[in-house]
Each structure stands twice: as C-alpha cells, then as structure tokens.
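NAD-dependent epimerase/dehydratase family protein (Mangrovimicrobium sediminis), 208 aa
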Amino acid sequence: MKILVVGATGMVGSQIVKELSERGHETTLASRSGGEGVLKLDASDVQQLTAAAIGHDVVVFAVSPPRDGSDTIEPTMKLGHAMIAASHQANVQRLMVVGGAGSLLLPDGSRLCDAATFPPEYKAEAIAHLMLLEKLRTEATEINWTYISPAAAFSPGERTGKFVVGGDSFMTNAAGESYISVEDFAIMLVNELEHQSVSKQRLSVVGV
C-alpha cells in the first residue's frame, strides 16, 4: 500500500514510518518543518493536505496538539476538519489517527482525564484529543477511519510485539500498569492497517 504519514518526524510518526517500511509499504513522509525526504506540510490546510493525500491508499495522522501552553482546542479542531475534508476529497481508502489515552472510559463511566490522579498538565491535550474523536464520530461518516489510543504511559522502549487491543475502555496489564512502548504501538497500528478489524471506531492498546 501507498501510505502518507503526517507528523512523520515525531516520536510516534517516525516509528510508524519505520514499521511500515520494514513491512514493505511505500511511504510518503510529511511534517510541519519538512526536511530531506520529508514534505513540508501545514496539516491544518485542507488544500495542502488534499494535494499530499491524492494517490495514497491510507493517511496516518500522528500529529499532537500544541504543548506550549497555548490554546489546544482551536488548532486541534482545524486539524480535524482538514483531515476529514482532505481524506474525502482525495478519496483515500483509510484514515488512521493516533489519539490520546485521556478520553478512555473508566469502569464507572467517567473518563480517565477526569480522574483526580490525572496529571493536570496533560488535561488540555486530553480534552483536545477527546474533541477530535467526537468530531470523527459525528462528521466523518463517509470516511473509513480508525482512532487509536495508546496506554496512559507511552514512551520509546522495547519492541516486544506483546500487547492487548481493546476499545473505548481504559485497560491495565496483569501488573496493574497502563503502558505501551512506541515501538509496540506502531506494530499494533500497522497490524490494524493491514488487517482491518473495525471501521469508524476507536481502538486502544496496552502492553502485557
């Protein structure tokens, strides 16, 4: 498959690119700053994103909300509008979105980001991710999208290939931990890309 990875130079995007390349997929890399072999792209610009997406089977969106203390909601909603419009106009077969863990549901029905133990410095980002997910659910009705939430703890680590895939509920492993390495997250995302199990739904993943 031919795949456009937006946010290809970031922590998550770069690992997804590596996983895709190792499995023989043709990838186009795009990021805000661009660079050698990387398309410079404003992912919130519908025309730019559409032009970049044309001719690709799948678009993988690995762009995080701003973390500089500025407003996160408006730029995230612009990104959401652009990814939906561009995917439709470019007629891509699949849209894969790297999401956040804060919107996952706890057993009592509340969201992880509303728990007293949730780090306050990540609250705005979690709300932005939640609003992006809701935008996909309500506005991307004609697009084959999948939103993937990592575990609560998410960082570079080992590539084990050992994880459990879930849905909207917050999960922990046998040790009571909610962790996934970026490497294993990339494996899970590419597995889902190659062997689709859901459409227009959120998936989540936790390492075992």
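Residues 73-89 form the longest helix (17 residues). The beta strands are 2-6, 26-31, 39-40, 58-61, 94-98, 145-149, 153-155, 163-166, 179-181, 201-207. ok done for today
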